[in-house]
Specification:
With 336 residues, this protein is mainly β. It has two domains: 150 residues, Sandwich (Jelly Rolls); 130 residues, Jelly Rolls. Helix content is 10%, strand content 33%.
């Protein structure tokens, strides 16, 4: 009699259990899943320059920064990859692109410059339809150019940055393309460890204190150095010097990456000792530091430490233009 009472209940419970949706192998909850089937985003094999080498070419690298040329032709999306460091992103050839995250969610970015991100913006970069912005690290993603024109940008990664947004947790969604992941495990490119050139400044015993605000480049040499973007981490300057022109004497209080897209012969001289800090004669004394096929035509990349009172003279017959990316958190002081 007792069995006759609980048996129908047990059968009903079993039928309800069988009718419930089952979780097949490989299914995950996108809101709360382990990442055992996906490499951590910091895995070197997933780095953009390794996992998507056709779209990311290392132009310059030292212990402080890495500069990558980013290209996306109108074509199928590139391989899934990550960018594990906070970066400055400089687009000089913009196009409409789609971003796919690791869960396949699509974000479309139109080929229009966004609003200027800082209030003290002085003048636009002298690049065609360009925009400059700061980016936190990117976890697993893929990019597709959906426009009819190529996309081109320079990504400057800060390798020693110490801020709350310089670190990103591992992805909380599964990798969507096992083929891409397998490729990422094996990927390596010859140009990953490319040569770079470090230009050491000349410390001078007679210089003014390097941090005097009135001697700072955008203040003392305002005719040639314009602030494009600034936050607590970096400051980006647009530097334009006409043929024969010499900048006003000024200081550069932060270590910086100098990206020259309109290269000309320049002479950098200490204003206190007259010593030559750096001289550049295009195609003669300074070799091109990256693949000659780069679309960053006739450009050079230099890394400078802190500079005391100095000036830059254009000793060529053509304009000089560069983007100076200053690293404000390096805490390097120039003895005076």
């Amino acid at each position: 009699m007792k069995h006759s009472l609980w048996l129908p209940v047990a059968v009903a419970a079993l039928l309800a259990l069988l009718a419930a949706p089952s979780h097949q192998a490989g299914e995950t909850n996108p809101d709360n899943i382990p990442t055992a089937n996906c490499f951590p985003w910091t895995n070197p094999g997933l780095d953009g320059a390794r996992a998507a080498p056709l779209n990311h070419i290392v132009m310059f690298e030292n212990t402080q920064v890495r500069v990558i040329e980013v290209t996306n032709a109108p074509s199928p999306k590139n391989r899934y990859h990550t960018h594990p460091r906070a970066s400055l992103f400089m687009e000089d050839k913009s196009s409409s692109v789609r971003h796919y995250n690791a869960h396949g969610i699509i974000t479309t970015v139109p080929a229009l410059p966004p609003p200027v991100p800082v209030s003290d913006y002085n003048s636009p970069m002298t690049v065609d339809n360009g925009r400059v912005y700061f980016m936190a690290p990117n976890d697993m993603h893929s990019v597709e150019n959906v426009d009819n024109k190529p996309f081109h940008a320079i990504r400057l990664e800060m390798k020693t940055l110490n801020t709350s947004f310089s670190q990103l947790p591992c992805p909380t969604v599964p990798c969507v393309d096992s083929t891409d992941m397998e490729f990422a495990r094996r990927a390596a490119i010859e140009r990953y460890d490319m040569p770079y050139k470090v230009v050491d400044p000349v410390p001078t015993a007679k210089c003014f204190p390097w941090n005097r605000p009135e001697l700072d480049g955008p203040v003392a040499a305002y005719q040639t150095e314009k602030v494009v973007l600034e936050n607590e981490v970096i400051r980006v300057l647009d530097v334009t010097i006409n043929p024969g022109q010499t900048e006003a004497n000024h200081t550069s209080p932060y270590p910086a990456v100098f990206i020259m897209d309109k290269n000309a012969g320049i002479l950098i001289t200490s204003a206190t000792t007259g010593a030559v800090i750096h001289q550049s004669i295009p195609a003669v004394t300074d070799p091109v530091l990256y693949d000659a096929g780069s679309s960053f035509a006739n450009g050079k990349i230099l890394y400078f430490g802190v500079l005391g009172l100095h000036n830059i003279q254009n000793i060529d017959n053509k304009p000089f233009h560069a983007i100076r990316v200053e690293l404000k958190q390096q805490n390097v002081e120039l003895p005076c």
